[in-house]
Amino acid sequence: MPSNWDRIIGQVRVKGILRSAVNNQRLAHAYLFWGSEGIGKDALAIEFARTLVCRNQSDTACGECPSCKKMDSLQHPNVKMIFPMPGGDGEKNEEGESIENEVLGEVRKQIAEKANNPYFDISIPKAKFIRIKSIRELKRESSMSGAEAGKKIFIIFDADAMNDASTNSLLKVLEEPLDGVHFLLVTSRKDAVKQTIISRCQLLQCSVLSDDEIAGALTEQQQIDPKQAHFISRLANGNYTRAVDLLGNDITKFRTDAVNFLRSVLSPSAMKLFDEQEEYLTGNKRDNAEQLLTMILVWFRDTIIMREGGDYHIVNTDQDAEMRKFVANFGAKNLEGCLAAVERSLGLLRRNVYLPLVMLSLTVNLRRILHAK
Ligand SMILES: [Zn+2]
Predict the structure, then answer these.
(1) Ligand 1 geometric centre to CA of 69 (Å)
(2) Cβ-based burial of 144 (10 A; exposed 0-12, middle 13-18, buried ≥19)
(3) pLDDT for 270-298, tens place per residue?
(4) Does some domain include residue 230?
(5) Which residues have a beta carbon within 5 Å of ligand 1, which is an ion?
(6) Which of 131, 195, 285, 345 lies at a CB distance of 3.0 to 4.6 Å from 362, suitable for a disulfide?
(7) Does residue 42 contact residue 213 with C-beta atoms inside 8 Å?
């Protein structure tokens, strides 16, 4: 029978664990949803929260009751969401208004977006940490009787973004579990979550999505032509959020840019490189840079596959001639090293490392590998 859970792509194992926990009435007080980015960890946590507060009290939310309706807009009084917010605690801006009021509009907008698309990543400008103030509020609210009867759920997105003070404060809450109160922590960087927190949670490892799962979702949810959906799913590399981002972009342009970037990286003249890649090396085009790096990543993955003779799996099928030339010239070089260098750069970019530095160090690394004797 179709259910609300079906809206979440893949993750069959985790869905099964959560549903049987409800059926067997063996709910943990705290869960940690972990795994790489863009695979639906937030979506799972939100759907689990919806299930737990649904008036029908079964292993799947009914989607019809007043509680489910409130969850549709993520405005349920018993489901609180915590995520990184900008500023220190009680920090004021120049006008003397609290920063919180200033970003309130942005927060509302992003929550509405998240309600509409649980794969949307809430990211408030200048937010670095989950503030101790947010955790104190959570602590207070978790101990009070709820605005509505029933369970109270706290979802903590980006749980790795807690500093020591927030971690310690949350730890106290987790150490004293209350009936009917559940904490759903979500992270793409489990290694950055303190072990003391992890040990208090039931761990739910979420898997990377397969190309077919992503392509299927793009076709069904975004009405993308199956052939195009398949191509994008290969570029997205298991990350559905990235796949949807890619839809809005001119992929052909980024592909051409990727080839040109590699050409200038390989050119003997450093000046030529700077002239041609100024946009990426000095500009502030972080989003573009991420797409460009993804294309370069795919390029190296494809050339490695081509070198091994597995042409069938190649993504960039329309750049066949260009790639054959590259493999003929550079097939003997350490292409896996190039792939790793691009992956590292993508990681740095996502951690907000200064863009020109990321691009410059990638250029140096690729030149070193590809020009090696
Ligand atoms: Zn319901």
Answers:
(1) 7
(2) exposed
(3) 666 667 666 666 655 666 788 788 889 88
(4) no
(5) 54, 61-62, 65, 68
(6) 345
(7) no
Could you tell me the pLDDT band of residue 265, with boundaries at 50, 70 and 90? confident
CA of 336 relative to ligand 1 center, distance in Å = 50
Q: How far is the CA of 64 from the centre of ligand 1 (A)?
A: 5
Q: Which helix (H) or strand (E) holds 207?
A: none
Which distant-in-sequence residues (6+ apart) come within 8 Å of 243 by Cβ? 38, 214, 217, 218, 232, 233, 235, 236
Please say which residue of 179, 205, 231 terminates a domain: 205
Using the mean position of ligand 1's atoms as its centre, give its distance from the Cα of residue 129 in Å: 33
Model-wide pTM > 0.85: no
Helices (H), 57-210: 66-72, 99-116, 132-143, 164-175, 195-198
Q: Which amino acid is at 171?
A: L
Question: What is the DSSP secondary-structure string of 264-281?
Answer: HHHSS-HHHHHHHTHHHH
Residue given tokens 């032509």 in the structure block: 225
Domain count, the chain: 2
CA angle 256, 258, 260 (to 5 degrees): 70
72: CA distance to ligand 1 center in Å?
10
